[in-house]
Amino acid sequence: MEEPEMQLKVKKVTDKFTESMYVLANEPSVALYRLQEHVRRSLPELAQHKADMQSWEEQSQGAIYTVEYACSAIKNMKDSSVYFKSIEGLLRHTIAVKDRLNAARR
Questions:
Q1: 2 backbone dihedrals φ, ψ, rounded to 5°
Q2: How many other CB atoms are found less than 10 A from the CB of residue 51?
């Protein structure tokens, strides 16, 4: 065989081999395998992130509840000032009545 003819046959064989390897490397089952490997490697880290986020959410909800409860208590204290003023007035009136009764006894 002549050299150019041999080179042509070798080139055809290598081209077919390269094409076959390309098809094999990009076959859907290989892609699914690669996807599975990626998920297998990254899933534990993602699960840990999810657990951390849930923990932070629980802590945040607890803190929000505490702040809302404190705000409610302060508002109730502010609203109760009317009642305290009324009680103060009644106590002053009671003391005045007691003083008058004591004065009347003497």
A1: -85, 155
A2: 10
